[in-house]
Amino acid sequence: MSCTVSMTVNGKTVSREVEERTLLVTFLREHLGLTGTHVGCDTSQCGACVVHVDGRSVKSCTALAVQADGAEVTTIEGLAAADGTLHPMQAAFREHHGLQCGFCTPGMVMSAVDLVRENPNPTEAEIREGLEGNICRCTGYHNIVKAVKAGAEAMSAAQPAAVAAE
Amino acid sequence: MYAFTYQRPKSLADAAAAIQAEEAKLLGGGQTLLPTLKQRLAQPSDLIDLGGIAELKGIREADGGLEIGAFARHAEVAHSDLVKRVIPALASLAEGIGDRQVRNMGTLGGSIANADPSADYPSAVVALKAAVTTDRRTIAGDDFFTGMFETALEPGEIIKSVRFARPDKAAYAKFRNPASRYAIVGVFVARFGGEVRVAVTGAAGSVFRAEAFESALAADFRADALNGLSVEADGLNADIHASAEYRAHLVTVMAKRAVAAAG
């Protein structure tokens, strides 16, 4: 029982024949080779697998690839500019050392970008609440929160009109 | 996950036809069903994705209250200006479900059809005198939840929308499990003129009304009116998170917080 799934991933149209039970994260990692999206808990708790589907952050381990048929999907690989310049949120995570082992980082960054899109100037409490669906076992979150705050400021400074429009 | 056939009907009529297949299951946002399938706890022949059906979407003002489509995602309800204006307590309940990513996928219809004893929405369905409209009939909110993971829905019956009455005052207070964010105890208090409804979720196998609380609050709508009142611990849920006695205690505490928040 297979079907054709087509979607736009990081700006590129892709189409693959997959089993209907294929998870979105499996589609991204194993069919498209985009291994930046991680599988942590595989039970929709940890958020390592967060990607954007039509601009909303979702846990790709708890979505079927066919549910995203026709959608615009952005993964961590799609955030940086074509020339390799990091997205302001990625740069902030590096600058503020918002990671230790780095396993949760792709999901953290994707959730943070979605959070800032909705709330361009989040308080520390709003950041902590906004990252409830992402678990980090190393850092204690302190530097992650600092990074998101700085990333939010950088995103606003980089494109105030665009952020406000969304 | 066992293999299944995936279908994405475009209309309610097509979905109603598809769900007649022997072992077919409806798919809402999938935030409970997909984890269940991944653990191989269910083996549906067909998954009928309701995400392509326009009739199940949207949030409208109706009869002074709200009519919310079954496929409204929790994040939509939480961020809707209409919901925030007409029944702000409902927006705030939706904003407290799960986490951001779960709210971006999970749906109202999926939540109440699943009838998890710790889910948030059942308390609003009961407290806000809801009417659940399906492809076959309308079910009163008071009659909808019949037990743990059990509802009045017949096999293959599909929820279209839920109508919530607009209360004069309302609030939802929950003591949540910090890991799952499900309600260990959640209490929705709503006041309609001289009538007060207090619906409790998380504490028992299914949502229930605390009648003694309701009459006390109908006479005097203040948190202190609940002093000395409590529900029987007998028959309440007990697990690693909270004993039945502790849940009984939390029902009073959450009810008081809800009354205070409702103002």
UniProtKB/TrEMBL annotation, chain A:
InterPro entries: 2Fe-2S-bd, 2Fe-2S-bd_dom_sf, 2Fe-2S_ferredoxin-like_sf, 2Fe-2S_ferredoxin-type, Beta-grasp_dom_sf, Diverse_Oxidoreductases. Its EC number is 1.2.7.4. PANTHER family: OXIDOREDUCTASE WITH IRON-SULFUR SUBUNIT (PTHR44379). Keywords: 2Fe-2S, Iron, Iron-sulfur, Metal-binding, Oxidoreductase. Gene3D superfamilies: 3.10.20.30, [2Fe-2S]-binding domain. This is Carbon-monoxide dehydrogenase small subunit. Residues 3-79 form the 2Fe-2S ferredoxin-type domain. It comes from Azospirillum picis. GO terms for molecular function: anaerobic carbon-monoxide dehydrogenase activity. It is an enzyme of class 1 (oxidoreductase).
UniProtKB/TrEMBL annotation, chain B:
Keywords: FAD, Flavoprotein, Oxidoreductase. The keyword Oxidoreductase applies. The keyword rRNA-binding does not apply. It comes from the Bacteria. Its EC number is 1.2.7.4. It is an enzyme of class 1 (oxidoreductase). Pfam families: FAD_binding_5 (PF00941). Residues 1-169 form the FAD-binding PCMH-type domain. GO terms for molecular function: anaerobic carbon-monoxide dehydrogenase activity. PROSITE patterns: FAD_PCMH. InterPro entries: CO_DH_flav_C, CO_DH_flav_C_dom_sf, Diverse_Substr_Oxidored, FAD-bd_PCMH, FAD-bd_PCMH-like_sf, FAD-bd_PCMH_sub1, FAD-bd_PCMH_sub2, Mopterin_DH_FAD-bd. This is Carbon-monoxide dehydrogenase medium subunit.
